[in-house]
Design goal:
By secondary structure, the protein is of the alpha+beta class. It has helices at about 1-10, 25-40, 70-75, 80, 120-140, and strands at about 45-50, 55, 60, 65-70, 140-145, 150, 160, 165-170. Helices cover about 25% and strands about 15% of the residues. The strands form four sheets. A two-stranded antiparallel ribbon has the order 1-4.
């Protein structure tokens, strides 16, 4: 409902993509980031050190070390995200002024980090916003209650039983 209201408030056209206004959809982007924090598309990341280094956490890493990072677990760590780490809370990504809060890529690894940060990050976010806007302007989507929702942890995160939803064409704007 909040995302749909943001789309209405920013006067996105009902036809076409209204690309020029997509950057104004702060709550939508916050919700997308929050979803990727809790359910990262790639759930594990492997890094190798060429030389000795110190991680942002203060941990020392020897040269030629292999580090496996579980992004699924990282997104749920209270030490990293606070006591409400298990809650879906898009507001954690929004500043007091209503802008998008920047989190360091070493904390939010959905698009990798450092010199390996995804070159297509902005394009991917824009495409996700376009798809969400098109769907929410034309359809009502409701998750069917009572289904067992379980992730399948692997390199690519997926759902064990899928996600059943009810989709209905919207009659009104």
């Amino acid at each position: 409902a909040k995302i749909r209201q943001e789309i209405i408030d920013n006067d996105l056209p009902r036809t076409g993509n209204g690309q020029e206004n997509l950057d104004k959809l702060v709550y939508l982007q916050a919700a997308l980031f929050e979803a990727m924090r809790l359910y990262p598309p790639v759930s594990f990341e492997r890094k190798s050190s060429v030389e000795s280094d110190v991680l942002p956490s203060g941990h020392k890493v020897d040269a030629n070390s292999k580090i496996i990072i579980c992004l699924y677990a990282l997104g749920r760590m209270k030490a990293v995200w606070g006591e409400d780490a298990l809650q879906f809370k898009p507001e954690r990504w929004i500043t007091e002024n209503g802008g998008l809060k920047h989190e360091p890529s070493s904390k939010f690894l959905a698009f990798n980090t450092g010199p390996r940060t995804c070159l297509g990050k902005h394009l991917a976010i824009t495409q996700m916003k376009m798809v969400v806007v098109e769907i929410l302007q034309k359809y009502d989507v409701e998750v069917i209650k009572g289904q067992k929702i379980e992730p399948v942890l692997g390199f690519m995160l997926s759902m064990k039983h899928g996600l059943r939803v009810k989709v209905a064409k919207r009659c009104s704007p």
